[in-house]
Amino acid sequence: MWSVLRSLWLVLMHMFKPRFTVQYPDEKPYLAPRYRGRIILSRDPDGEERCVACHLCAIACPVDCISLQATEDEHGRRYPEWFRINFSRCIFCGLCEEACPTYAIQLTPDIEMGEYNRQNLVYEKENLLISGTGKYPGYNFWRVAGVKIKDKDKGEAEREAPPADLHTLMP
Amino acid sequence: MNPVLLKIIVLVGILLVVLGLASGLIWLERRLLALWQDRYGPNRVGPFGLLQVMADMIKIFFKEDWIPPFADKWVFVFAPSIVMITVLLTFAIIPFTSVIQITDMNVGILFFLGMSSLGVYSVVLGGWASNNKYSLLGGMRAASQMLSYEVFMGLSLMGTVMLAGSFSLRAIVEAQQHMWFVIPQFLGFVLFFIAGVAETRRLPFDLPEAESELVAGFHSEYSGMKFGMFFVGEYLGVILISALISVLFFGGWLGPVLPPVVWIILKTLFFICFFILLRAALPRPRFDQLMSWGWKWMLPLTLANLAVTGAVVVAMRR
């Protein structure tokens, strides 16, 4: 009997406690910078696409929602011809971001992507590509990779020694 | 004014106010429960979410009015209306003020007890006609619960009747001019309140519809407005018991300064809120606990209360 009265009183006293509800559309909840929301493709500081079309994200994806077609520009730089993420399948696990060797694919703290038409959840490359660098401002994959591209020969990358001349390399 | 016209105005007024209050309770209950559970509750539709009731009504009216093919059709349709009829009929004897009362029966309390017994048929028949084992279990539970709680519900009121010397509710209120009956009849009040909660099948005594065990008990198969009638019937029952408590134990319309109507409304609303607080705070007992509590504790306590009150009344008369 005492416990009944006590619980009545305790519940009544909750009248004066703050409410936990966040009134969502009016009052946005705080999403951490590393929140796993809408996926984007970022660019390097030079404004070029970071994605090298290695397909690692597509392989890592547990629900197979990423598909892309690799191609090369005239200087031998790989990039995706098209890049497609089906967000109606995506489970926002972030494995694609972990798999990405060039920081190209990133998850952002944006969760408001509701659509009336399911087809609209299939994002193409122009929907995914942003003009900025995302979470890694200084990083430029092609400037540290030892691959020859348009304006960078082999051995000219950051912290890279010039290539050894094989013909002078005697034991 | 023409007395017949006055009567009709009072009748229609009570009907409208009570039905309006019953639908308003849907909103009030949800808001209060939310308040006590640190939430907001419905606050989107209209000011403070008040129009939520309208939205719910529109929704429930447009729902498919489905009768299961295995149900006993006529009883199935008729059952929800019984609870509405009996509860609404009982409002005829409630003296809201000395003027606002439909009829002052000299057996008012007996009428109320009879009507509340009839109300059980709604639940039992609803559970039976659904032709579904969970519904039937709910109906059976309702029947046995009502049976055991009605016994001491009637007896718990007899102390009040003895003090007032009348079954008429108006006479009972007028007998409380100097002292509310809750003071000499505190035990009677507590017992009647518990019985009332069981009578309206509200938490913590909502075993007939215990959703964690019986889906929705007696109204598992009901949908649309037939379900709505059970729902409104339950809220009407809450208002009825609250109004009766304020009339029988808290001096009805009597009170200083404010006009009588305000007093009865305030007292009734207080007990309605208490009903909701009970729902917010208390867990549901097991069915055998409920029954043994009723027969082994409540009934003997009521009988003791009755005997002591009787003895005191006789002694005072000497």
Quaternary structure type: heterodimer
Secondary structure tally, helices of chain B: 11
Distance between the termini of chain B: 45 Å
Radius of gyration of chain B: 20 Å
State the helical fraction of chain B.
Answer: 55-70%
Shape of chain A: elongated
- The ordered string of helix (H) and strand (E) elements of chain B is HHHHHHHHHHH
What are the key terms here?
heterodimer, A: 171 residues, alpha+beta, Alpha-Beta Plaits, two-stranded antiparallel ribbon, 5 helices, 5 strands, B: mainly alpha
Short description:
The complex is a heterodimer of chains A (171) and B (318). By secondary structure, chain A is of the alpha+beta class. Chain A is built from 5 helices and 5 strands.
Structure description:
The complex is a heterodimer of chains A (171) and B (318). Chain A has 171 residues and is α+β, with helices and mostly antiparallel strands. Chain A has a domain at 31-133: Alpha-Beta Plaits (2-Layer Sandwich), CATH 3.30.70. Chain A has helices spanning 2-13, 56-60, 95-99, 125-128, 141-144, and strands at 39-41, 66-72, 78-86, 105-107, 122-123. In chain A, strands 2-3-5 form a three-stranded antiparallel β-sheet. A two-stranded antiparallel ribbon of chain A has the order 1-4. The N and C termini of chain A lie far apart (94 Å). Chain B has 318 residues and is an all-alpha fold. Chain B is 69% helix and 0% strand. Chain B has eleven helices and no strands. Chain B has helices at 3-36, 52-61, 73-90, 108-129, 133-164, 169-174, 186-199, 211-214, 224-249, 260-281, 287-317. Chain B is globular. Chain B starts with a helix and ends with a helix. The model of chain B has no long low-confidence stretch (mean pLDDT 84). At the A-B interface, α1 of A face α1 and α10 of B.
